[in-house]
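Job type: complex structure
Entries:
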Amino acid sequence: MGKQYGFYADTSRCIKCWACEVACKQWNGIKAGTIARRKVHEIDSGKFPTPTRTFISMSCMHCAEPACEKVCPAGAISKREEDGIVVVDKNKCIGCHYCFFACPFGVPEYTDAGMDKCDACLGNGVKIDEGEMPHCVATCPTKALHFGPMDELREMQSQKTAKKVVSDSTRPSFLAS
Amino acid sequence: MDDAIALARDRMLTYQLLSSLYLKEVTADLLALMGREPSLQSGKLGEYISGLPAADLEEARVDAASDFAALFLGMSADPVAPYESVYTSPEHLLMQDARDEVLAAYRQEGLGYAGADNLPEDHIGTEFEFMAKLCEAEVAALEAGDAAEAERLRDVQRSFIREHLAVWVPQFCDDVEARARTLFYGGLAEVTRQLVASEADWAE
Amino acid sequence: MGEERSLTRRTFMAGTAALGAMAALAGAMPQTLAYADDAKKMAASSSDATEVKHAWCQMCGPAKTACSTLCHIKDGRWVHVEGNPEAGNNYGRGSKTLCAKGNSAMQVLYDPARITYPMKRVGEKGEGKFERTTWDEAYKAIADKLKEQKEKYGPESYGVLSPQAYQVLWTLGRRFLNVHGSPNYMHSAICALQRAASKKICLGSADCDPGQLDKTKLYVIWGANPENSAINQGKPNARLDAIENGTKVIDIRPMLDGLGAHADIWVPIRPGTDGALALAVLNHIITNDLYDHDFTANWCNGFDKLAEHVKPFTAEWASEHTGLPKEQIEEVAHLMGTTKPMGILYGNGIGDQQNDGNWTCIAICLIEAITGNLDIAGGGGAKKTVPKPMFETKKFDILTDRLPKSAEDEEKGYFAGMSKLVAPETPRWYQNPKTWESGPNSAYFKALMSILTEDPYPLRAVLGQASNPFGATRQPKKIAEALKKLDFYFVHDTHWNTSCDYADYVLPAATHYECSQQFGTKNTPAGTFIAINQKIAEPLGESRSDWDFYMGLAQAMGYGDDFWNGDMDACLSEQLDGSGFTLEDLRAANQGIFVARTDGAKAEEPTYQNYEKLFAALPNGKVQCYNEWIGGKPNNTETGELGYLPEYVGPPESLAGTPELAEEYPLIISDVHAYRLCNHSYYVGVPYLRELQPYPWVKINPDTAKKYGIADGDWMKVESPHGWVKLRAEYKEGISPEVLMTRRGWWQDCQELGLPAYGCFDGGSDSTVLYDSTIENFDPFHSAMSKQTLVKISKIEEGK
């Protein structure tokens, strides 16, 4: 396989501005009030006057061993050789939801057209092999979201305090700090 | 054949009337004419018309015009946007897929947008105008003895009703009826709903 | 069977067909379709080609030129948007970043509820009865009225509402006021201008906000929300860089917001009590001898008087008012007094939203000053010097000299027009039209009240362009009264709002995406960028741009000679004269034009501690610890004198200040003013933004909510001594159990998502109804109004 691409979310820089969510929707033609491929999650702890708030933007993990691909009865899901991005062929999808139950991260969502999830903006013409960034990454005003080959992301992450993704049985191509 | 021509002509006139009533405010002249038309006596519109002879026509015209503004020209907290895109796109915005589709349908029949104001082409008035033009062409085809062309035009009409009018106009009429301040527009919505229902039946 | 069916259909349509026939004979039917030779051809060749056009983002307000964007248009429809990497947005060239609002901009153009035609009121004010008219008729009626009133009452009887930082009003609007002869620019009094004035009279041209954040050791954020007001304009990104670099951050705000979550210390101060904290910090620094002796000895006017004055303002005293533990006040004060370089970013949350905003800002400025942090590397100000722009455009001339100087102006030594201000925002003697923050300005709310009080005289005509007085200022109930009584009110806007029902004429505004009449520039070390808004779409219906509105009005008034005879292109060309660019050059540039710097010039470190220059305009050329610029001089209502030393007043209703009231109204409420999903009370109907926060929310501490039996997501009634609203509770640990925080301006529905509008009067959801609006309580220097009050709450069953 070529290089595995993935995302790296730096919680030390995320301010929950939602730009990534909206950029994803507008570039992928996702209508308001329907689904969302990317969401900014908030993790809270502690109580007033010293609560903490941590924000992390997440979408599909483009796992090295995607559970969704394994369970799909229609063969609609595949992992690309050249960059490891997991994509779904909506024409083959039968909407059975098996992928949703298999995914440890609850990523798959469904529209009339079939299962829908992040495809690293391949579907809207972004050339990741030429170094172009998915629109969520390009739009982030505080450089809290990154995308690229995993080894390059690991290099970036090493400058920060890494956060471990707990459910990693599917080997998500995702880093956090 | 005469019946077919008469029907097509009646439909053309009906669509033309409704088209104009959604595109522009009703004139005092038309209100006066309405007062004299017996077969519009039922429903809300009938109720409205029965009040006309006694009414000050100019006042009635202004009342209707202000209702038109509040409903269709954005001049209220809760206006009704008379555009198919708003009703059939998930985010209810102007200029969505529906507009592209109806524009393609108009062009397919050799028609282009010629409105003086820059408004989206899926305005209900324009869609009704399209139906009127199709019926007008049907009349011409029937009068010329071209049964095939007449049937083709009826097919186009049926498609347009099934794929567009029947899909959004009923909900649009409900919204207008709910928000109309005058019986005129409440009645117009009622009549429009009935027309589209009848047309939809035919188009099945 | 077919015949039967067609008979039934015919019977059904008999009435409408007959009427249709008569109507067709009676007159012309509107035509929107016509047979065209090329129609079939166009159907066949609908392309998938995308074109890219440039537009300045309008999501922080109309006529802004902060973020340059590229708009992708497919088959005539605007489908995508991104930050323009040519321009140097946010952190510099190459940045394609945009905030959530910027990413939603295309939805504004396709808003289904736009006003499409000029409208004339035909019913009573408030009834909402309008009939369509024409621009010509409307302009004539407006011009006739303005001319009549100018004759009868003087030109000052006309005033214009000022929305947030709005270039149309700064340029064409000001020019119109000056040519007409009115000083009544009705400035909000809720603005950076208030803070700018306070800073000016205390520190002159020095600044507290650090200009080289990478060198700052301690950064104090005080009532400032760039993660809501300016996400893509550099500050949030720069702050996170600084934090990575070791800068420590103290965040003094009632609520723990996005950037606050990254601060080292969060100081959850009670809304409206920042003046008390600032005075206590001064007290601590002076009492503990933490101040810079060299600076205070050489560059402070009346330091000893200040030192004496702040003695009673102990941490214990401040704790009573701020709700903060004494220890935290001391900790923060100590850090500010001992960490250098230290810079303070204070914002809209304190200076412009408190009735003692002037002294609060001044006290904060003095903290920065007496600790010796002004104009040092990493301290306040001291920005790197950026090389000059590669080209110059001409500044718009607002024709200041055309405003008539009255005999009273002469006699009292005022600048022209000041004695005729209906409600001076800052005192008449203080206002100087040559300085940015200073007018001539009347204060928005006070000026509207003049209509009711007729003191000193009532305004007779008001223009509301891009401003909704029911959302923009205090007490909608009083606004309704004033607008009802007002002789003539005319509005130019894209979308209906409550104020429209009180207007005589409502004119349809095109968005700035529907015209090409504004250019902007950005100058950075890399080079200089210039671009104009390209037209993304033709104006909807009969809407006209904000610029063309003024051009038409000026023509109708006979001011054409001063307004390029209505030709906005001529106006723009004049501004471009000498720049090397023509209007055609700009309009042809789909990505704007970037001129790279080729001489190798870079941003340089400035010289530091330029105190003589910075304080030159101040009395005695020194920082005003004891303020002789305003001390002893008349306040803005001419009812008394301004003081010399900072005082704490506090909100009109507060836990410490009005304890008896607090027994019935035990909680404090305020609102966020700016928020990253709206532009004040506009854009609440944009689907991508509304779906993120569909309901009018109020953040509430879970412990407090549980006491009242309110679950997360329940609706609650929130009532102050002045009004009440319905809001949806959202649990939040990052807010004090004593405090509630909401977001105002929910008057726009979002039919797209099936969400209603929430009214702006009692029983609606606009916090504007809750606050005090007593003019005597407003800041006596710059008219800021308190945006905090006390409330009682209860759960309600009924939701929307």
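Summary: The helical segments of chain A are 19-27, 67-71, 98-102, 135-139, 150-157. The radius of gyration of chain A is 16 Å.
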